[in-house]
Amino acid sequence: MGMFATGRSPRNIVFGRGQRQSLPGYAGQLGQRALVVTDERMGAEADFVAMMDGLRTAGLSIEIFDATPPEVPLAAIEQCVAAGRAFGPDIVIGIGGGSCLDMAKATALLLAHDGSPRDYFGEFKVPGPVVPLIAVPTTAGTGSEATPVAVVADSDRVLKVGIASPFLIPHTAICDPELTLTCPAGLTAIAGADALTHAIEALTALARPIDGQTTHEHVFVGKNGLSDTYARQAISHLSDGLARAVASGEDMAARESVMLGALLAGMAFGVAGTAAAHAIQYPVGALTHTAHGSGVACLLPYVMHFNRSHATASMAQVAEAMGVVVARDDDDANAERAIVAVETLFGEIGIPRDLEALGLKHDQQEWCAEQSMGAARLVKNNPRPLDVAAMRTIIKAAHAGRRDLLDAEI
């Protein structure tokens, strides 16, 4: 099979210090009535107030919804949609962390197509374009400013659920690393670790057989030429800047590297998809009530070890991107160096080293293994085939903090 590449991304991507000031120009191209979706903390920030003043000065009418909670529960989406319908926007602007951007995506969807978020759970359920979206991230992690996914919390389900459609990709992404300067060290670490996990899982994902229908039948098509390029660059930027950004939040160069890495990681996994670390995190997060980024990052070294025999060359590329290559002609040794480098970086920034430290009880492992298999879009993306027994093995090793327990199963 020859090279295959595909990409889906915002129509406009603008990155750099001070680029939040470009918001009025991009918004004015799309409409004159903007529903701005954010949270209470961001709504009180001077930078946010200045952006709103810029929109008003440019002649836009704005309505601010600043009650986005973590996890994006359906009841909050309904409140935001109600505010939007009363105002009648022709553009939705999400400003904040991943939850704010996902709230903006879900709101833009329902303003265009009505119904409930439940009507759109899964892939390709969105019937057409949504209200035009602009995404302005203030953390560097989820990459939601460039992805086709909105993750929400349904009170009728134990696990969070995703809406996946290319129609959810924002029209414009404005990434200003100065907006991350107030992000505390702990959140910087968790968000950045999430982004690195996105990039590594995208780069090591299964390369699937491709035909003319693949991109029409799958939102996430597996690793390909474009996603690999984005993922390698993301890994390089994140491994270079993340520890420095956590240690010194005022290090502007580090903040730039991390935010660019998170954006590129979003562009990589937004078409390639993620895999086992994300599949297992959903039940682990539901039981431990811990941050998504902490969970996927805690699991990543164990998932990499499990997958190494089926993604050796890709993991060697991880080592190269992180600058830890041992020998150019020894992919297996380089793959191990990549895993160690990930463990070292995550240890340095305070990611829990095992699931027990994350709060998962010993008797919860079996339930997690069973529930992990429910994330079909992630399971099918893993480079090594997964079943309940495989999930059980990964979770056991990750709970004990012992990668060597995986060796008996490989």
UniProtKB/TrEMBL annotation:
Family matches, as Gene3D superfamilies: 3.40.50.1970, Dehydroquinate synthase-like - alpha domain
Family statement drawn from the similarity comment of this UniProt entry: Belongs to the iron-containing alcohol dehydrogenase family.
InterPro entries: ADH_Fe/GldA, ADH_Fe_C, Alcohol_dehydrogenase_Fe
One Pfam family matching this protein: ADH_Fe_C
Domain of life assignment: Bacteria
UniProt source species: Devosia rhodophyticola
Protein name as annotated: Iron-containing alcohol dehydrogenase
Entries under PANTHER family matching the protein: ALCOHOL DEHYDROGENASE, ALCOHOL DEHYDROGENASE 4
Every Alcohol dehydrogenase iron-type/glycerol dehydrogenase GldA domain range: 10-177
Signal sequence, start to end: none
Domain Fe-containing alcohol dehydrogenase-like C-terminal intervals: 188-398
Alphabetically ordered keywords of this record: Oxidoreductase
